[in-house]
Design a protein that fits this description.
By secondary structure, this protein is an alpha+beta fold. 38% of the residues lie in helices and 26% in strands. The strands form three sheets. The chain has an eight-stranded mixed beta sheet, with helices on both faces. Helix 7 (154-168) links the parallel strand 8 (141-148) and strand 9. The two termini are 42 Å apart.
Length: 250
């Protein structure tokens, strides 16, 4: 069976070697480095078995990017604790959205209004808008990149329309076609990252219902999500420009 490998990171500044990868199914760490082939060097290795290979990597690679625990126990938080993160972050809150739809949107009366007349209403007293306006008025940054299909799903079109309201309260929402996201190597994950130090990974079921929220603080993992954010922001386009692209394809 072919392994499902996820690139962890590298300390190389030139060609990407040496590097670490993680087997998504077994949790094994795949170390990429310079092969050790000299017979006298190999003779010094203990417990070196037939069919095994040795590679040399800088110590800093393992220190910086090696997992701190054999198995990471998920730290789950409830919805109330999750909402508090939007009131306590200091500088930036940013989200990647990759699903084709969300059950919470389909249950929203604003979604039904959009289906009826093609436009979503806006309630300025909605708690989310009140919180985000307070944070952005304080000089903090709130943003998202949404991955959209070609053509966009009905739910994605609803969010594209609703993003007008988000922008009015200070959110920077950008868009990326799914094929471009896949070409850029973005993961099919939904998460918020706060102040580049804490990740809230959102887990959904097959019906697009939010199951639980996992907090990640391990530095190497947080850096990986920060790299995803940077790549997504590099390739994404502002909401208005994306809306114009969608209009030309309809």
């Amino acid at each position: 069976m072919v392994r499902r490998l996820r690139f962890t990171d590298t300390d190389s500044k030139v060609d990407g070697c040496p590097a670490l990868h993680t087997d998504e199914d077994t949790g094994e760490i795949i170390v990429q480095g310079t092969p050790v082939t000299d017979p006298e060097d190999l003779a010094q290795l203990r417990h070196f078995g037939a069919g095994e290979a040795a590679v040399a990597v800088p110590r800093e690679l393992l220190v910086n990017w090696g997992p701190r625990e054999m198995e990471r126990a998920p730290e789950l938080v409830d919805r109330a604790s999750f909402r508090c993160l939007f009131e306590t972050f200091e500088h930036t809150a940013w989200r990647l959205e990759t699903r084709r739809g969300y059950a919470s949107d389909r249950q929203d009366p604003d979604f039904q209004a959009f289906l009826a007349n093609g436009s979503s209403p806006c309630d300025p007293d909605e708690p989310w808008f009140v919180t985000i306006k307070a944070q952005t008025d304080a000089g903090k940054t709130v943003g998202r990149v949404r991955v959209a299909d070609a053509p966009p799903t009905t739910e994605q079109l609803f969010l594209l329309d609703y993003a007008r309201h988000n922008a009015a309260f200070g959110e920077d929402i950008r868009y990326l076609w799914r094929e471009d996201a896949e070409r850029a190597g973005l993961p099919a994950e939904d998460f918020w990252i706060f102040d580049s130090r804490l990740v809230a990974l959102l887990h959904f079921d097959d019906g697009d219902n939010l199951l639980d929220i996992e907090l990640i603080t391990e530095p190497a993992e947080v850096v990986r999500y920060a790299m995803v954010r940077d790549a997504a922001m590099h390739h994404a386009v502002p909401r208005d420009r994306f809306a114009a692209q969608v209009a030309t394809t309809e």
